User: What shape does this take?
Amino acid sequence: MANNLPIKIQNYIDGSWVPSSNSNTFSRENPANPEQIVFVAPNSTSEDTNRAVEAAHAAFAPWSRTPAPVRGDLLYKFTALLEAEKEEIASIITQEQGKTRREALGEIDKTIREVRYTAGEASRLNGETLPSERPGIDVRTVRVPKGVIAAISPWNFPIVTPLRKIAPALATGNTVVFKPASVTAATAAKIVELFEKAGLPKGVLNLVIGSGREVGTPLISHPLVKGITFTGSTEVGSMIYRLAAERIVQVQLEMGGKNAAIIYDYKDLQSAVDQMVPAAFAATGQRCTSISRIIVERPLMPELVARLKDKCQAYVIGDGLEDQTTLGPVISEDHMKTVERYVKIGLEEGATLVCGGNRVDSASGGYFFEPTIFSNVKSDMRIAKEEIFGPVLVVTPVDQFEEAIQIANDSEYGLAGACFTNNMELAQQFVEQVQSGMLHVNNGTISESHVPFGGLKHSAVGPYSIGTTAKDFFTDLKVIYSGSR
Assistant: This one.
């Protein structure tokens, strides 16, 4: 794969691959080997964005009239193509994003399952027939597509997250303008290339690569855009929410997390550790659903911390293309400096550094950082409150389960949470009282491909993605009263 680098990428507008209107480009380095350029892509303008929206708008009428099962069939064709090319695409993901090849392949497999489910949903866009208060009147509801959807995706999951937006949008009859994170534009281009191979009509899916200022803001502000689905930081999501509110346009926002796992009255600590460490350090901790806080019953803390340390020190850090690697680099030099800054903050706040805390020197100069654990972390410390989005896990001891619940909820975020306990009364208390959208009892924070995905508080706005709730965002509801004459 490396011999084919750098990959040359273009925008995809109205069924054609085209450069940006100003012909400007940018390059993306491999975070495991910054001297290696993975791709060169267009640095697009608002003019390119406008053209893409107009193409999607023109394609909307014929696409929305295409029978829904036919739209689903096209998604099935896409998944077959993705399955056939997943080895190549996994290499691209690893080289531009940094995650291990095993993680990249796992992300692709999850994408295939989710898109297959969504393809079936195209045949399940059912409404209701309701009784009328009046004789001779039939009442029913139907779902209709919105129009042009702006799909804005992040860099940490460059294939599954875009497809959580694109697939349900297409299944329900919408057209799409896709703005990916610039640093993972090569995977974005492969997504569009596969849809082109599957026979998607021109204009139905458009790709515009560029900055938030030149592409993102014009896209969400465009009067022809009827819905905005975004995954990324809460700061950017809040800005999108404000701009959308000015136009009274619906949003689906999936944003940050500071997810807590409670371990209390639980006998098998090794089982909890075996599930929590991957939940903390998968994708090098760069996941919105990462477990970044463990709240533990005080008598269990010494053994827990020792087991966490042993598990973390077993990681093999390096280039994700190498088979032995189990922890890849962070996304960029700037992000590595951010993680370093939080380690320094944790030490200044008085937390105990159990292991890690340093960047890893390598011959390639990659952005490698050790998996890091802090113990004796107080709930008001910044490392316990702020989303670090890196390989940092903090441990807080408590004396009462009620205190654990209070600390878990002491966050502006509410995406995911976990509880390990042999006491089912405590498990039920956790489920009832913790303010998060996805809760896991005695298992790690793994989401499934047919189940709604979303959060509460500052972690999400709008209907959950995936599963039966996705169509609540991607369709509007019409109510129809029919008389006999």
